[in-house]
Amino acid sequence: MYPNLKMYIGGQFVDGHGESSQSVMNPSNNEVLATLPYASESDLDRALESSEQAFRLWKKEPAVERSRILRKVAELIRERAENTGRVLTLEQGKPVREAIGEVLSCAEHAEWHAEECRRIYGRVIPSRKSNVQQTALKEPIGVCVAFSPWNFPFSQAFRKVVAAIGAGCTVILKGSSDTPASVMLMAQIFHDAGLPKGVFNVVSGDSGMISEYLIRSPIVQKISFTGSTPVGRKLASLAGANMKRCTMELGGHAPVIVCDDASTDKTPALIATLETLFPNKLNAIYKPENQGLAANMRTLLAAAKGEYIAYLDGDDIALPSKLQRQVDYLDTHNDCHMVYHESDMFDSVTDRTIKLYSKDFYNWSYIPARSTIEHMIQYGTYMQASSVMFRNHSNLSKTVSPKCKIIFDYAFYINNAGYLQATVDFIPEVLGRYRIHENSFGPVSYTHLTLPTKRIV
Q: Is the dihedral of CA 300, 303, 308, 312 positive or negative?
């Protein structure tokens, strides 16, 4: 069932000419599945030349033709999902059902890019002169190099490849040496779908040698990498030294803390399973009984190890970029201690946007972009409870008193602001959504809400 491993260069499946090779192991029993060929510099030169030559033609290919090929790719993915998934399980180790699901999800990615590549629009830019017409056109950047990881060997690689190909670029892919068959079967799918030779190339072998050789090549214009932060830092350094654009998804370090009394269903058993599977990511806190919200809050605060603290709700989980934007802001504004952002208030029944939380509902014009604890006390809840992120501090556990029985979010933030001697910055971007029923404060509350004219500056 496990295929004989080859590289895919110039539309052909070929052996590598590197001096080394390595065994690919089945992680469940350490059985040797196959021998992985290593690329030599001459193999990489052929991949580069093939990609460069193919790009000259592929960039001119009508979008409708690129779309047709990607739709055929989606069709073949579905036809071969079971076999591809079983091969993925042999080399990666995840359950067959999950592996097949990973492969099938890529059919939807192919269809999405098949549509989007037909809508890569330019724009007309108004000119200052009547006899000048200005237009902006989006063009494929050129030869791209992609590096993908072992944990989702088919989907992580596929999303990089299909986006570049749909946009009119050519791609050289280096997959994980632990899971090479997944990307080889992917190459077979693109080959059978009629993709012109050279548009997609797959190489394997020494990751350090391959990445350095390809990134330094003047042929390569863009790098995409998913993997660890140390490796990403090295590749970013190479890309920067050679003025290459790069896109990276690097390893995370944020723990997830879940209490075992979160629900009365099977959640505790699920948490125990996940804690075993992800010992470095999930920190489960077990208590004999629910001691109340305030006591639970103190437990969580005592366990918090991160540099920043933030409340989470369902919208935060669905919009992770919201949290990343806050982290980025605090990272680059060392003189800021707390940060919050604008949120879209929408009707939970109709899903209709009602107001902007800060600007329209709490009249943010009364609050400077950088405020203080005095503003928080005088003007009340001008920060949405789940929108605030602040720096960790040594008095964190003191912000909820042992005598406290009920937690008010805003009082909690005021306490933290006091300990931090905080400056509170406002990010005017809409980074979240806040559910509310349109008539929660009466049918006229949105048009008749006013605040005192006195203002702290």
A: negative
DSSP states of 319-372: -HHHHHHHHHHHHH-TT--EEEEEEEEEETTT--EEEEIIIIIS-GGGS-SEEE
Q: Which segments within 367-446 are labelled E, that is strand?
A: 370-372, 389-391, 423-436
According to DSSP, residue 4 is labeled P
Paired tokens of 64: 């409708």
Q: Please, what are the domains in the chain?
A: 7-250 (3.40.605.10), 291-448 (3.90.550.10)
Helix axes 63-92, 96-116, angle to 10 degrees: 170
What is the separation, in whole angstroms, between the first and last Cα of the chain? 72
Element (H, E) at 172: strand 170-174
Determine the length of the chain.
457
Sign of the torsion angle spanned by Cα atoms 370, 374, 380, 381: positive
Alpha carbon distances (Å) from 182 to 121, 177, 178, 253, 258: 33, 11, 10, 27, 34
Coil, strand, or helix at residue 409? helix
In the structure encoding, which two tokens stand for residue 362, read together? 């709490």
How far is 371 from 139, CA to CA, in rounded Å? 44
pLDDT of 347-392, one tens digit each? Answer: 766 767 777 877 777 667 788 999 999 988 888 767 876 788 999 9
R_g of the chain computed on alpha carbons: 27
- 96 alpha-carbon distance from chain centroid: 25
93 neighbors 28 (Cβ within 8 angstroms): yes
Collect all residues with Cβ–Cβ distance below 8 Å to 11 and sequence separation of at least 6.
50, 191, 196, 197, 198
Other C-beta atoms lying within 10 Å of the C-beta of residue 150: 18
Question: pLDDT of 415-431, one tens digit each?
Answer: 999 999 999 999 988 88
| pTM > 0.85 | no
Buried b vs exposed e over 66-77: b needs ≥16 C-beta within 10 Å? bbebbbbbbebb
CA separation for the pair 167, 59 (Å, rounded): 8
Dihedral sign (CA 288, 293, 298, 300): positive
User: What distance in Å separates the CA atoms of residue 371 and residue 45, rounded to the nearest whole number?
Assistant: 58
* 179 class by beta-carbon count within 10 Å (0-12 exposed, 13-18 middle, 19+ buried): buried
Residue 38 CA to residue 404 CA, distance in Å, equals 64
Contact present, 173 and 160 (Cβ < 8 Å): yes
